[in-house]
Amino acid sequence: MEKNLGQDDIDALFAAAANASAKSTKVEVDKGPEKYVFSRAGQISNDQLRAITTVNDLFARNLMHSMGAWLRMPFRVKLVAGEQLPFSEFLERLSAMAYICSLRLEPLGAVGLLELDLALVAPVVDVLLGGVGRAAPRREPTDIEEAIMRAVIEMIVQELTLAWQAVGLEFAFEKRETEAQAARTMTLGEKTLCVSFEIRMPEVQGVVNLCLPAVVLNAILRRLIAEGDRPRRRSKESAARMRELLAESKVEVLLQLPAARLRAKDIVALEPGMVLRLPVARHETSDLVVGGLTMAKASPVRSGEHRGARLEGLIQGAMANGSLHSVAQARVN
């Protein structure tokens, strides 16, 4: 049977709906302080995870270039995962044979773990001992290989510090740990940040896992997000440090005679001990070539037990800042 609602009935329905909405709003306002859930302590937000990804991408690129230059071979590093895990789950994922070491996080006073796939140890050691980086079955490293791997781990830790230095976090290598010792560095239920990197070499690939306690990272991560929101500006200290590092770098320097033309029969007749006379005047200067760029005109001289170059004049436009002096000495090979 169809029921028709009058105007009074309709007004009553709207009034009831309005009263229900008002009560709901009042309950939300009067519900008081929100309960703190201890199980969520150390939980990392999505913004923090994005900031961590940015830092770890920087670490992966820097490690790829530094290790590749040190080993003089392709060394690819790629960030593959970053997630929050209970420490017990991280322990379950440890490989049966892995190189595990503890890292000290300063100034937090906390301890993290770094796991290196043992498949990477043999080719890295082989390259550093003069080989070509051949793969080998997983095995425990010898004492000599252990000493070499310590230098490799210290380079990895150094790159971690460089990547995290914007927020004042420093990493320090402590020692290699057994699986049982590693299990005692944190409580099993503690939330951790686990970051995985894939390493590729010509004949082998493996993973490097970084495990950090999430609770102690929260303050650092908040600072990291705040730093990311600001426009980045290079400080005077970092610029001075960059100049200092560049000043210690080495570049190829060559003292090169001007081009000359010789008869082919004079070159064919050359024998050890012969003096080849060049059609270059005795007082004509040579070119000082630095990193493939002709920088100045110079004359060969002796500087102690070394050969040197006395600069006679700079090439116009060779150096924008004109930092070379008109008379100086530079060692050449």
UniProtKB/TrEMBL annotation:
Q: Where in the cell is it found?
A: Bacterial flagellum basal body; Cell membrane
Q: Where is the Flagellar motor switch protein FliN-like C-terminal domain?
A: 245-315
The membrane topology noted for this protein in its Swiss-Prot or TrEMBL record is: Peripheral membrane protein
Matching SUPFAM superfamilies: CheC-like, Surface presentation of antigens (SPOA)
Gene Ontology biological process: bacterial-type flagellum-dependent swarming motility; positive chemotaxis
Main localization is other
Phosphoprotein among the record's keywords? no
UniProt keyword terms in alphabetical order: Bacterial flagellum, Cell membrane, Cell projection, Chemotaxis, Cilium, Flagellar rotation, Flagellum, Membrane
Q: Which InterPro entries match?
A: CheC-like_sf, Flag_FliM, FliN-like_C, SpoA-like_sf
GO terms for cellular component:
bacterial-type flagellum basal body; plasma membrane
Q: Which Pfam families match?
A: FliM, FliMN_C
Q: What does the record give under GO molecular function?
A: cytoskeletal motor activity
Family under the similarity heading: Belongs to the FliM family.
The free-text function statement in the UniProt record for this protein reads: FliM is one of three proteins (FliG, FliN, FliM) that forms the rotor-mounted switch complex (C ring), located at the base of the basal body. This complex interacts with the CheY and CheZ chemotaxis proteins, in addition to contacting components of the motor that determine the direction of flagellar rotation.
Q: Which PANTHER family match?
A: FLAGELLAR MOTOR SWITCH PROTEIN FLIM, YOP PROTEINS TRANSLOCATION PROTEIN Q
Q: What is this protein called?
A: Flagellar motor switch protein FliM
* Lineage of the species this protein comes from: Bacteria, Pseudomonadati, Acidobacteriota, Terriglobia, Terriglobales
